[in-house]
Amino acid sequence: MKFERKDFLWGGATAAAQVEGAYDVDGKSLTISEMRPYQSKLDRKKLEDSLKTLTRKSLVDSIENKEGLHYPKRYGIDHYNRYKEDLKLFKEANMNIYRLSIAWSRIFPNGDEKEPNKKGLEFYKNLLTECKKNNLKVMVTINHFDLPWPIIDKYKGWINRDVIDMFIKYCKTLFNEYMDLVDYWLPINEINIGVVAPELGTGILKEDYKSESEYIQAKYQALHHQFIACSKIFEIGRKMNKDIKFGCMVANVTTYPSDCNPINQRENQRFQQLSRFFFYDVMARGEYPSYIWRYFKENNVNLIISEEEKKLLKNNTLDFITFSYYMTGTTSKESVEKSNGNLMSVGKNPFLKETEWGWQIDPVGLRITLNQLWDRYQLPLFISENGIGVVETLNKNNTVEDDYRIEYLSKHIEQINEAIKDGVDVFGYTMWTPIDVVSATTNEMSKRYGLIYVDYDDYHNGSGNRYLKKSYHWFKKFRETGEI
Ligand code: BGP
Question: Where along the chain is the active site annotated (predicted)?
Answer without folding.
Answer: 385
